[in-house]
Amino acid sequence: LAFCRGRIVRVPKGPLIRVLGTEVVIPCSVSDYDGPSEQNFDWEFSREADFVRIVSTWDSTFTSEEYQKRVGRGDIKLRRSSNDAVELVIRNIQPADQGRYKCSTPSTDATVQGNYDAEVQVKVISDGLSVSGSKARSSASLRLSEGDSFKLRCSAITTSPEHTHLHVTWQIKSGPVWQDILSLTHEGKFQPGPGYEERYRNGDIRLDTGANDTYWLTVSQVSSVDGGAYRCLVSEWVRGADSSWQKIQEKSVEIANVAIQRTDVVISTSNVSVTERDSLDLTCNITTDRSGIFQAEVMWYFSVSPDDTLSDAQVLLSMDHNSVVSDSTLISLSHVDRNSYRLLVRDVAVEDSGYYFCQAAVWVPLHNGSWQKVVERTSVPVNVVVTALEPDYEVFLNASKTPKFSDDPTELNCMIINAQDTEANIRFTVSWYYRQHLHSDDVVAEELLATMDADWTLLLGERSRERTQNGEIIFFKKAVDIFSLRIQWTSESDRGDYFCVISAWSKHRNNSWVKSKDVISPSVSIFWATQDYTLTVEAVKLKPFFVAGHTFEMTCKVSSKNIKTPRYSVLITAEKPLADQSNPNGTTRIISLNQDSVVRLEDWTDQARVDGVVLEKVQENEFRYRMYQTQISDAGLYRCVVTAWSPGGGGMWREAVNGLSNPIQIDFQTSGPVFNASVHSDNPTIYQGELADLLCVVTMEGVALEP
Q: The Ig-like domain covers which part of the protein (predicted)?
């Protein structure tokens, strides 16, 4: 094998049959060579015996004189396809170019082995191919509607002396380039172009042969993509010496320009706004220039989004091509004219707001009496807004109870007034709001106290939830058109502005409730001035002079300000002299009377005089204290300690303020010592004239004094 290996130069196996006036390309390649990768080539031609130099890749002086003009014009040239291959290109080949062509390669090998040239015979035959269109005119214009069919005719014949085959291709041009539709190859096979395979299998694209070498293209169910220029492209093929097929020439003729009138489906109006309970009127128009018999199939759809597909949308009503309409109570579909179909929706509601679109299909009759759908289109959705029929009413807020003090009740009434168009399918609910009252210009957001949903369920806000659950705040409906808010015991934190919102709800056909309107009331301010509590207590001694053993009596008169409906509790105290060891602290709590008029002995311990002290309520603001059988040990300063109470939440009493009266003094001192004197006789019975012996006994605090 190493001995036989060497350079090999190859050209096609001849003869090469080529058509007069066409371009001829003869390839030549070299392999198994030594030296540089890029090889040079020389081409020569011989009609009979001697070869004439044509062109070279490496020697510009190689060309003989008779070829210099053709080579200079570029009619003959070399085209390098790779480092080891070139093509000899001859434009507009003539009968004089028929003969033997030799391709040679100068040696770059270390040793001479193999072949350094190769020859091929070229045979030039006359042009016998004829391609034409309709006899009436070279190119026709067709104007069709979507779904129509059309046929185009092309005639192709050859009178070549060689045994050649024709390859016929129908092409369309709707853009910058021609696109294959369907071919009948030189081997007798049908070959659909890219994108036409399915239509070919369905029979919508056909290529038929007829008499007189005619080729018919039939296109059914045309659509907008079938519009454009049509041509018939015919190539002539011959089988070479190596049994391969070689294309020797190609011709084309434009047959027709086809325009497709698009069938459009549009809704006659764009965005629509209607009022609740009115009628919605939409028309679906089919735009087509179809003049023959056809019937339309129309289907109306509804969706809440313009991006919904047909499978997601709701079918409202449909009419088939036999004009049979599906049933509906509130919706009707009518055929207005040949191309218009009207949808009428009566008594629309808010839930009918959304996107409406129609889908229309065109049906044409066939020869066997059946109908065939030829085109189908869907309109652009139309946005329909149904405006709620709002009831007309006003809202007024007033305070039937306003607090003047803390813990007073507050009651607000939210009233619906001047209501109109409030029928059975209208329902009212209320929402209550609070806004803190500020002296500055700062803006404070309102706080939700409570709101009601459509089924009158009360939803509490954070501010009022706990107090409402405890019964301190009550929301109730006083009348059909009055909603009320009651604060049982108003605190200072409740001071501020209150307002209510009355919402109107409309009942829809599916028995659901949808809010249609909100009306806000003017605000009502709940406020009272807070002032310090004041309490004054005055003690008065009713008897200015008395002695031991007599009754001590004093009254306490109370006056207060800024206290709501006060009640008073009273405590009587006594400040004894420091020498009195019964109370080392100096102050004794004697007796008390609470706000409910219950009397209690406090630190009174004289068991001999348990009933010796009395405290009683003379009137709401006056109290009287009595102490019977006073003793010297009762001396001291007496006061009234008064506490004012105001009613608090839940029936409880709240301590407001304390007050202390002026002192009232009990003092038993006289101008001399206090003592007792008595007369005593040892012999009280004597005779007249006898001596009477009498003794005067002076005692002080039970002790007899010495005379």
A: 21-113, 146-254, 263-360, 391-521
Q: In what order do the strands lie in the sheet with 129-132?
A: 129-132, 150-158, 214-219, 205-210
Confidence at residue 510, expressed as pLDDT on a 0 to 100 scale = 74
- The token pair at 276 is 């609740």
Beta carbons of 666 and 552 less than 8 angstroms apart: yes
How many Å apart are CA 188 and CA 360, to the nearest integer?
Answer: 42
pLDDT tens column, 300-332: 899 988 888 888 888 888 888 777 777 677 788
What the block records as the tokens of 147 is: 């779904």
C-alpha distances (whole Å) from 153 to each of 167, 232, 357, 373 are 15, 9, 42, 27
Question: What's the count of helices (H) and strands (E) in the chain, helices before strands?
Answer: 3, 52
Looking at residue 114, what DSSP letter applies?
B
Rounded CA separation 168/231 (Å): 10
What pLDDT is stored for residue 3 in this prediction?
A: 46
The torsion angles phi and psi of 576, rounded to 5 degrees, stand at -90, 160
Instruction: Read off the pLDDT band of 293 (50, 70, 90).
Output: confident
Task: For 569, list phi and psi in degrees, rounded to 5.
Answer: -115, 145
How far, in Å, CA of 462 to CA of 405, rounded?
Answer: 25
Buried (b) or exposed (e) across 164-198, using 16+ Cβ within 10 A?
bebbbbbbbeeeeebebbbbbbbeeeebbbeebee
Per-residue pLDDT reduced to its tens digit, 536-555: 999 998 877 667 778 889 99
- Provide the pLDDT for residue 405: 80
DSSP states along 340-356: EEEEEE-S--GGG-EEE
**Cα 482 → chain centroid:** 36
Alpha carbon of residue 216 to chain centroid: 58
Instruction: Determine whether 312 is exposed, middle or buried from the number of CB atoms within 10 Å of its CB (0-12, 13-18, 19+).
Output: exposed
> Quick one: which of 93, 92, 9 has its CA closest to 43?
9
Q: How confident is the model at residue 609 (pLDDT cuts 50, 70, 90)?
A: confident
Of residues 553 and 371, more confidence is placed in 553
Phi then psi dihedrals of residue 607, to 5 deg: -65, -25
- Ordered structural domains, the chain, with CATH: 7-125 (2.60.40.10), 129-261 (2.60.40.10), 264-387 (2.60.40.10), 392-526 (2.60.40.10), 534-666 (2.60.40.10)
Mean pLDDT of 353-379: 85
Q: What is the pLDDT of residue 1?
A: 36
Other CB atoms within 10 Å distance of the CB of residue 531: 9
Of 572, 577, 537, 580, give the one whose Cα is nearest residue 553: 572
The number of residues in the chain equals: 707
Say how far apart CA 205 and CA 633 lie, in whole Å. 138
